[in-house]
Amino acid sequence: MLTRRRFLSGSAALAVSCGSSANAFAFEDALGNEIVLPNLPRRVITINSAMIESVFAIGAGQQVVGVGGKVMHPPEAFGLPSVGGAVGYSAEAVLALKPELVVMAVSTSAAAQLTRPMKAMNVPVFLASYSDFPSILRYIGLLGPALGRSQQAEQLVQNMQAQTVQLRQRLQDRPRLRVFLETGAAGNAAFQTVRRGHYANDSIYFAGGENVFSDLRGPKQVTVEGIAAADPDKIVVLTSDPNWTSQTIAQRPGWHVLRAVREGNVVVLPRSFMLVPGPRQAKAISILAHAIHPEAFAQ
Amino acid sequence: MKPGVGSIVIAVCLAIAGVLTGASLGVDFVTPAQLFGALVDSITQPQPDIISWRLQRVVGAFFVGFCLGIAGVIFQGAFRNPLAEPFLLGSAAGGSLGAALAILLPTAAVSSVGLPVMAFLGAWGATLTVLGISRFAKIDDAAGMLLVGIAVAALLGATRSMTTLVLSDETVSLQAMLSWTLGSLQTPMGATLALFGVLSFALLAVSMFLAKGLDILGFGEPTAQTMGMDVARFLGVALTIGALTTGLAVAWGGVLGFVGLVVPHMVRWWVGERHGPLLVHSALIGGGLLAALDGVSRALIPPSEIPLGLITAFMGAPFFLLLIVRRYR
Amino acid sequence: MIRAENLCVVRKGAVLLNDISCHLEPGELVAVIGPNGAGKSTLVKCLVGLEKTTSGQMFLQQRPIASYTPRERARHVSYIAQQQEFLWDLTVLEVVTLGAKTPGAAEGILAHLALREFSDRRIKSLSGGERARVMLARALAAQASLLIADEPAAHLDVGQQRAAMAAIRQEVRRRALGALVVIHDLNLAFTFADRILLLDNGRLTLDDAADQALHAQELDQAFNQSFIRVEVGGRFVVFPEEQVS
Q1: Domain count of chain B?
Q2: Which residue of A52, B102, C47, C138 sits 20 to 30 Å from the alpha carbon of B57, by its own alpha carbon?
Q3: Dist. CA B119–CA B102, nearest whole Å
């Protein structure tokens, strides 16, 4: 952290000394690092789906010259040159695209592999970080000034907030249902879930539910027994397996003991849509609300 | 203690105690009396009941430990090393690759066989590959097979890491993969559990035919050969059966380290080193131990489940170190 | 019964056995003697199938030895290796039973070798000499028609050496066991053996009855020694010359 700040203040001084300070383009990233560029970055490399979706959602897609990781949305990002993926990221591929800014999320393998080389090559890096839902809004808000799209970013954040408010109004007469959200399954053994601090925990809340395991201690995995003790009203299963249905879930060994299963309150949703911490999370919350309170959307 | 009816009765009692402990522990503590009541209820008026789920899971854990105990004795005997473990010939790496494919690659073909079968095929296939290569290379001693095992395991491990990396993004749960690798009881129920039990006992029965050969191997491979044993063939058969047993345990329990190493070792101190008694007692004690530890994994930080493999490692690794220190000091 | 013809073993250019032809019949005790490195162990290992031969043929009951499975061969030939290994700490009775043709055979041979009091002792708690006797008991309990032993007396004291050889000879006389025994101690060999095979640098230089072999010049050549033959109590023993002077 110390070295990064020293580097950044150095580069700021450089920017000031070689360009006119009036034209300097300054912003900070989600870690609070001050970044000063001579101009608005027009060659941007964006890595990982959440970042790509965010940059395109604030209208900065035109500035993106390269992407990394799996590109799921939007379609305009599909054809862009890639600088790597899960198997590894190439600093050379990044540099070859002559980037003026690299946008990555902390705690991704991309950040681990690229931050240091970029620093060495004096390529500025915008690091986003996310955990809960507000943190997603926060980094999107910070991306605006960084890419010269402050207004659009503000607008997007407001829209996302408005959608959650709208949902809350729509669901205000509904009882808050207790929800078990399964984010992964090691066969039929342990089932992974989320707790407080994860945006999906907030998403359940905005969707009119309450995560039964928001206060989970220890490993973020539970057994049928744990689920039965928590006795959720709704079970939402996120999976990438297109063959899964609520029937698949009901037939798991021992799951018939769960009240939600017996009452048919099991919903299976695509993981790839629900667990991307970007602008589409607002849509994910809406889908979750439909899953948790279908009757509220019946008319 | 001399092995005999008495020691088997004690082992059976310990096994039952282990299963009862495992079934009592969990998110809520259940007394054995309540357990019995629930068992009677589930027979007289079958209805969804978490205690019956728990009982079946614990019995599943028992058979996983049962198989690991048998496999441990076979591998230690065949490799003529009392510190050998059942995963020596690539079962863990192969099983993990199978499980990784099942968890990360949700195609219809993979979904239809299911995770346990994929894990079993991986574990069993890995060892068969090792034995096949050993045969092709005319390797007839355990040390050579071990080296082939290390190479095959490295290759499978790399394949698994590659698969995991390539497939990793928001669409798949790496946490699930990690969870499986750290040991996960797949909770066979009903007919599946019965099948698992029958297979476990069948493997114990089959492995009893290996007992005399494993005893004779203790005189060294040359002496064993002149006592009428086709050592290379015997090793092939013994390790195939050992791998089958390990594969069964991996299919239903994931990779659970140290059980197959530590249990036969403790049983040696108790009933001596003849492989017949060693097999029977290790199976029963391994089963009882794992059943009890499964209860611990569910009861320690409820409602979270601590991966069982972490518990066996936390308990087994210090014990293993103790053995090594004792052996070399 | 067992017969080797023109046996050669070459390893990495070194000739370990050079054109050896010999045989072993039921009811005789044959001692293999020779200086260290003469090929004694290699010869017995070939005969029990633990060492591959470079050329030559071996027959067990007129049948090529290569055509026997290990199990078939073990029914005819039992073997005691020079290096004994006891990985599992079994009891004496368990060890002997593992080699025995029938459970009764184990009990009988233990009584025979005065090992009965040891039967419940664990093998690792025994002395080297006691272990050697247990391995002899194990090999004899198989009740094979031939016994091939590589220095079974190596770890024994003088009295035990004689006892072990006496036990083997008793079996030879009692049930016409054919025994081929590598013996380091020349006088032990001449005392107990019916016939002597002398190996010198991979060659079989002498194959004669024990009382004839004792006087043979080949003995002095093989050991590069001048032996003095002395008659003690009606039997000859040999001493290296310098030991006497």
Answers
A1: 1
A2: B102
A3: 8
